[in-house]
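Notes continue from the previous slide.

Worked example: a multi-chain complex. Inputs as given:
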Amino acid sequence: MNILLNGQPLEIPDDFTLANLVESRGLSGRRLAVEVNREVVPRSRYPQHPLNPNDRVEIVHAIGGG
Amino acid sequence: MSDQPYSPAADPLVIAGKTYHSRLLTGTGKYRDLEETRLATEAAGTEIVTVAIRRTNIGQDPNQPNVLDALPPSRYTILPNTAGCYNAEDAIRTCRLARELLDGHDLVKLEVLGDPKTLYPDLLETLKATEVLVKEGFKVMVYTSDDVLMAKRLEELGCVAVMPLAAPIGSGLGIRNPFNIRQIVENAKVPILVDAGVGTASDAAVAMELGCDGVLMNTAIASARQPIRMASAMARAIEAGRAAFLAGRIPRKAFASASSPLDGTFFG
C-alpha cells in the first residue's frame, strides 16, 4: 500500500505498523515524534498502530532554531 | 533588596514555577555547526534554549548528531518553538509534537507569524492558539508585537511569559519602541522577555534597564563575526542592565549638576 511519509509517497507492506515504519527508516531509538493524519501517536503505541492506505505520516525531530 | 553588588544567584527568574539564574535565553539556529552552538550557548550562560521542530530528513544518516545531543535536556530547559507556523492549527500541532518529542515537557514558545517579509506575529491566530494550548496544559511563552493591550490579553489567557519583539526577527535594529516595552513591563504580572530584534550588547542592556525580566536572542549571537565572544558580551550586558534597573537610574536633567562639592575651594 502507499502512504505519504513527510510529504513523500512511500510504498510499504500492507501489514506494516508504525513501529515497522520507524525501524525501516533507520530511526529506531532516535528522539522523534510521529503524527498520523494530524494526530500525535505516542511512542509507546507504535507497535500497536497499524498503518492504512493513504495515511499521512509525519516524523519530526528537534533542530537548531530561534 | 539591600544595596550590595549585583549577584545573579540572589536575583532568580521564575518562569512557570521553575527558577533560573540566567536571564539570557538563546536560540540555536544559524550557527556554523553544533560545536559552535554548544560553545556559544555555554558562553552565554543560558539555561533555556529554543529549538525548532522539523521533519526528519528521511534517507539522511540517522546517526548524525542532533541539537539535543549538543544541548542535552538534562542540562538545559528546552523551549521548542513554533517558528514557521502561519496559523493557529499548525502551531498547535507543532506544540503537541514537541511535547511528545520531549517526553511530556510542556513549556513551549508560541509564535504564529503573519507575514514572511516582516515576520511580524499574527496576533489573532496567536490568541486562538494560546487559548487551545493553555486548555491542553501547555505552559506558553508567547511571542507578540509590542502592543501593550495585546500583551495584557495574552497574560490574562494564561501565558506563563509574554515576549514582545524589540524589532523584527533577525533585524538587529534594537528596541524600536522603548515606551511600549516599558508600559508592557509595568502592566505585567508574568515575566516579560524581549524576544527578537536585539543587535548588540547595548540593546540587551537597554531591554533589561527598561525592566524586562529577560531577553531571548539568536541572530545577534549566531551571526556575529565571533559568536562565542558575542555570547559572553550578551551575558554581561544582561547582568549589567538588570543590575542598573534594580539600582535605579538617575532622573534625566536638562542642566549640569557638579559632582564635586562647591564649598571649601581654596581658590577664588
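Summary box: The interface with chain A takes residues 27-31, 34, 37, 50-56, 58, 62, 66-68, 78, 80-81, 83, 93, 96-102, 169-170, 216-219, 222 of chain B (CB under 8 Å). The first helix of chain B runs from residue 34 to 44.
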